[in-house]
């Protein structure tokens, strides 16, 4: 792939000609890896979901976007909306970096609805002539016509305790006051943390303190903070950079996860919590953001990608997509992630099969779709391993299986077409023990999302296989019964 100069990375869409954009669109549209039911960029690079909010009868979602190529250049916010979280309308570019306080990019942030307007908060990225960064926390206001105006600074300075890694405001209302969480890195020990600001009116903000947490020494920067409450519990979601691998955990370049505890004490900035859990066990998941649905469910969408990694679609002028929306349910101090029920409307024709497997590998016949949802129940499992092979071709297959002897669930993409990020390994695992196993899988052109036992664990991954690799089989090194339902899915 070409080397991008600094000048090329820091051109906005306003500086690109129609001819340049049309050529890039044509290149992207010829790519065999384009998704069918996931949010993806028309051109260039997508990353963090931003401003995820229910407003004026619709869900509004923005994402980080560099329009001119598959690299991390000057970030814009792209805007899509939906009434059902499945069928998304293209609303065009939401925020273009045009002001001095966002001269080098409109970084991540969130939204909050007040007074029939959507207030959007984000980090304005700037660099001086010596390329030293200074982040500003900014706000813009969207009306019911989707007009975004009134860009303004709300927090100009970084408190002296923190480096210029100071970004990604999460704004919410609690007991009549507004709070803003910002991901940060401390100067004195170069460890990640989250700081709290407070406001009476969304415009004037006062620094309170950083969140007092027992999660110490874990990562040099905590990106994309988010906060949820369930009855008497608080859940702090964030993406710590710099965690070192521990067994099967923290295998990707960067991680996303959560802490569960008592609700944050905003008077004293204290958060008493349990251990840190990864949100996803797969290869490609980062920077999730949540919102509350119009019927009170907590919904998460993540970036199906990671920073500092090249992907096979880069060659075709685009990179990354977002995950399907997931409902978050708190169950015994753990977050359960379930595909939202609205996704059922994508289902088309269905096939159902039942097998008793005895040291064999059985192919699913007469199903040749590449885009599908699959549910399977393994029961009375015995032996060494049971699992599924999908996207099978002459030399390709992706494996998900239960390693019974080692009590592990394993996702293996070592034969999943084009290799990438192999320095971080080609298997992902987590502990599992049981005689039964239920899987729900969503397979798109170049991705898979696997939900284990109704969302107790999730494995999210990109896979870049040949178009002819569409076989599915179930196998057992031992014995098991398996019931299977597969739906072809409609393209959006």
UniProtKB/TrEMBL annotation:
Give the Enzyme Commission number.
3.2.1.26
Q: Which residues form the Glycosyl hydrolase family 32 C-terminal domain?
A: 342-488
Chain ranges of the Glycosyl hydrolase family 32 N-terminal domain: 38-339
Q: Tell me the lineage of the source organism.
A: Bacteria, Bacillati, Bacillota, Clostridia, Eubacteriales
SMART domains for the chain? Glyco_32
* Compartment annotation: Cytoplasm
Q: What Gene Ontology cellular-component terms does the record carry? A: cytoplasm
Protein name according to UniProt: Sucrose-6-phosphate hydrolase
């Amino acid at each position: 792939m070409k080397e991008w100069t600094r000048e090329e990375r820091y051109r906005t869409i306003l500086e690109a000609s129609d001819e340049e954009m049309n050529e890039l669109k044509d290149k992207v549209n010829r790519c065999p890896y384009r998704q069918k039911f996931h949010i993806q960029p028309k051109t260039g690079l997508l990353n963090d979901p931003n401003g995820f909010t229910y407003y004026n009868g619709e869900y509004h979602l923005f994402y980080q976007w560099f329009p001119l190529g598959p690299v991390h250049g000057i970030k814009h916010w792209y805007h899509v909306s939906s009434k059902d979280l499945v069928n998304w309308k293209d609303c065009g570019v939401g925020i273009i970096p045009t002001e001095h306080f966002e001269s080098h990019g409109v970084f991540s942030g969130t939204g909050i609805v007040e007074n029939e307007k959507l207030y959007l908060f984000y980090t304005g990225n700037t660099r001086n002539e010596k390329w030293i960064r200074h982040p500003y926390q900014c706000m813009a206001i969207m009306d019911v016509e989707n007009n975004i105006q009134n860009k303004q600074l709300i927090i100009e300075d970084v408190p002296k305790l923190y480096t210029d890694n100071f970004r990604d405001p999460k704004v919410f209302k609690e007991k009549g006051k507004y709070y803003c969480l910002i991901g940060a890195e401390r100067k004195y020990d170069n460890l990640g943390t989250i700081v709290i600001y407070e406001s009476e009116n969304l415009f004037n903000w006062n620094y309170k303190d950083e969140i007092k947490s027992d999660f110490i020494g874990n990562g040099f920067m905590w990106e994309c903070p988010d906060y949820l409450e369930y009855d008497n519990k608080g859940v702090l979601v964030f993406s710590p950079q710099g965690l070192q691998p521990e067994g099967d955990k923290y295998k990707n370049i960067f991680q996303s996860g959560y802490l569960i505890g008592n609700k944050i004490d905003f008077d004293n900035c204290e958060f008493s919590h349990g251990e840190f859990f990864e949100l996803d066990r797969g290869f490609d998941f980062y920077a999730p953001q949540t919102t509350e649905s119009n019927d009170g469910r907590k919904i998460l969408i993540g970036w199906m990608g990671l920073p500092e990694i090249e992907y096979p679609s880069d060659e075709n002028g685009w990179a990354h997509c977002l995950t399907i929306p997931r409902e978050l349910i708190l169950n015994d101090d753990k977050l359960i992630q379930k595909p939202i029920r609205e996704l059922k409307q994508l289902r088309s024709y269905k096939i159902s099969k039942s097998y008793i497997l005895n040291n064999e590998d059985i192919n699913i016949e007469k199903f040749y779709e590449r885009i599908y949802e699959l549910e399977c129940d393994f029961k009375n499992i015995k032996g060494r391993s049971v699992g599924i092979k999908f996207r099978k071709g002459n030399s390709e297959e992706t494996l998900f299986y239960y390693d019974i002897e080692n009590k592990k669930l394993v996702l293996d993409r070592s034969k999943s077409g084009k290799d990438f990020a192999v320095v971080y390994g080609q298997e992902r695992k987590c502990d599992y023990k049981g005689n039964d196993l239920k899987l729900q899988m969503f397979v798109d052109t170049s991705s898979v999302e696997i939900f284990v036992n109704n969302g107790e664990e999730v494995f999210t991954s990109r896979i870049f296989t040949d178009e002819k690799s569409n076989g599915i089989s179930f196998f057992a090194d031992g014995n098991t019964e398996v019931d299977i339902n597969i739906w072809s899915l409609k393209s959006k």
